[in-house]
Design brief:
70% of the residues lie in helices and 0% in strands. It is globular and about 45 Å long. Helix 2 (26-33) packs across helix 4 and helix 5 (103-110) packs across helix 6. It has 139 residues and is an all-alpha fold. It has one domain (2-135).
Length: 139
């Protein structure tokens, strides 16, 4: 039960951060990706803040040797970059640029019943299903 509470609190914190920073607004994301037009650097600051918090937390977990939820940290070696990873990253980035949504803000926008999210999230679920069934993608 403790693990589920931690996950719930992390999700609430993430959603609140998205809402407060304005990152649930697809126009902000598209503005960030529009380098030749009316460029909006807000997303870069949000990402920088998130990376700073993550880096500090990761450093502290590495130093203490313990992590929340009883899981263990990776030993430092990761899987090599594969063709599936590159294709998936290209598809993810393309969808993000076209729709202005990535999964977190899209799901957060369901609560606001935004038409774009009501279309995007089911299509995202279909894409995830097809990736798993057709291409053997685990997650």
């Amino acid at each position: 039960m403790k693990n589920q509470i931690i996950v719930l609190l992390a999700g609430i914190l993430f959603g609140a951060g998205l809402a407060i920073s304005g990152m649930t607004n697809p126009e902000r994301v598209i503005g960030f990706l529009d380098l030749l037009g009316n460029w909006d650097p807000t997303l870069a600051f949000v990402m920088g803040g998130a990376l700073s918090v993550f880096s500090l937390g990761y450093f502290l977990m590495r130093k203490s040797g313990s992590v929340p939820c009883g899981k263990s940290l990776p030993k430092g070696e990761s899987d090599p970059v594969s063709a599936k990873l590159i294709v998936g990253a290209i598809l993810f980035g393309t969808g993000w640029a076209i729709g202005g949504f990535c999964p977190g803000p899209a799901i957060a926008n369901l609560a606001a019943a935004r038409t774009e999210a009501l279309v995007f999230v089911p299509m995202m679920a279909v894409g995830m299903f097809l990736a798993q069934r057709c291409f053997g993608v685990d997650r």
